[in-house]
Design a protein that fits this description.
The protein has about 130 residues and is of the alpha+beta class. It contains 6 helices and 4 strands. β3, α3 and β4 form a beta-alpha-beta unit. The chain is globular.
């Protein structure tokens, strides 16, 4: 795996306490629990510390709180996503509330994007012209 240099300031932020949503997702993905995918938390990539990453699938999962809805933070998130995608990573973003309320669908989405499960079939009424 390629290692990327991380500034000391960003590295210091990596060991912050987990939010309730981060802890809930970590309990689902740690120790290869989610379809055998090996996730790491607070992983340094480029100039960033990502919430969760599965290096074998080049998949990053970021959990966002309400502060991410502000224009300044949204612009920063977009620049971060662009740089990480340029390095070949796929980035998934979930709201903290979605993780707390519906962890099963969050995990299902991660598995589908990782290519380990097919997307669910559309309801029958959508198939009939």
């Amino acid at each position: 795996m390629t290692h990327h240099r991380v500034s000391p300031a960003n590295r210091g932020n990596a060991r912050k306490a987990m939010t309730d949503a981060e802890l809930k997702l970590w309990n689902e993905v740690r120790a290869d629990r989610l379809m055998g995918m090996a996730f790491r938390r607070q992983m340094p990539i480029a100039d960033y510390i990502v919430d969760f990453a599965c290096p074998s699938k080049k998949l990053i999962v970021e959990l966002d709180g309400s502060q991410h809805s502000s224009p300044d933070v949204s612009a920063s998130d977009a620049a971060r996503t662009t740089k990480l995608e340029a390095l070949g990573w796929t980035i998934l973003r979930f709201w903290n509330d979605d993780v707390i309320r519906d962890i099963d669908n969050v995990c299902r989405h991660i598995v589908i994007v990782a290519g380990l499960a097919a997307a669910p079939a559309p309801p029958m009424e959508e198939l009939v012209p």
